[in-house]
Amino acid sequence: MTSRRLEPDLIADPNRLDVPKASVYVLESHGHRPTTEALVVSVLSRQPTGRVVVAAEKFDQGVAFPLLRLGVKGLLTFAECSEQLARAVLEVVSGGFWVPRALLSNFVDETITSARRPRGPAGPARLSRREKEVMDSLLENLSNKEIAAKLNMSERTAKFHVSNLLAKYGVRRRADLILLTYTQLDRPA
Q: In this structure, is residue 116 part of a structural domain?
């Protein structure tokens, strides 16, 4: 693990930033949201396969939601870092998200109500007609039981399809798949 403190002139002009190749980048945010967002964009534009975790004093929706839309995969407060940073990095490296549950729920709720209807996350997965129907239901945040009732299938079959979708997109949880879908809405194809 390599740590690097940025000089003020690099923070002022993140386009000059030399970004070494890494799996995960942990960025400290000290309250200046545009600077943090510019650093995230700079890192991800230079290392598109990298994953970003941002640490800050606190996160509210006004700070967290733009970062998630830019592709940040983890949000930790400074107070949580000593106990949870290692676990957060491992989760993010494995393809998951590390975002406080309440914040993630609010992000998904807001995005669902304000965004255009997604077609599912970008990726190599080709979906059958039935998988697309299950994906649409999953994106409505329906439970397996509700998906089964809506699509006239057994709850076990709904669970099977949901598990297959999670595997196809390389995520572990339904919330990760929903977040993955909505964070990719505003990105160019």
A: yes
Check: CB of residue 106 under 8 Å from CB of residue 68. no
Task: For residue 30, give both structure tokens.
Answer: 């000290």
- 75 and 125: one domain? no
**Which CATH number covers residue 12?**
3.40.50.2300
Q: What string of H, E and C letters represents the secondary structure of 143-184?
A: CHHHHHHHHCCCHHHHHHHHHHHHHHCCCCCHHHHHHHHHHC
Helices (H), 3-154: 8-12, 33-46, 61-70, 78-93, 101-114, 129-139, 144-151
Query: Is-above-0.85 flag for pTM?
Result: no
Amino acid found at 96: G
Last residue of a domain, one of 49, 78, 99: 99
Quick: pLDDT tens for 15-71: 566 777 888 888 888 766 777 888 888 888 888 888 999 999 988 888 888 888 888
Contact 52, 24 (CB under 8 A): yes
